[in-house]
Amino acid sequence: PYNRAYADSIPFQLDFWNVPIxxxxxxxxxxxxxxxxxxxQDPKTALDRLAKRxxxxxxxxxxPESYPPEFRFPADKKSPLDVVRAGEPASEVGKPKK
Length: 98
Description:
- This protein has 98 residues and is mainly α.
- The protein has one domain.
- The protein contains 4 helices and no strands.
- Helix 2 packs antiparallel against helix 3.
- It is globular and about 50 Å long.
- It starts with a helix and ends in a 12-residue tail after the last helix.
- The model has no long low-confidence stretch (mean pLDDT 79).
């Protein structure tokens, strides 16, 4: 039963790391979470620093204007939850309705 539910959910999954700056975002995530788990900073500080680093990386890269349309988050969606609530498979998000 679990595999069937998982298989049914795959079309609705969005990979928000599907961008050219993936490695930089992942490195920041790993460094900040590791520092938290190693006791070098508290969870709030780790997540605040991560958010700041991600924002700086994304802004420096020029997202979303510098990306082709297929890499942009749909303008009519404010968050990943909006996509899920709309019931649109990830492969169809942002495409014109037929």
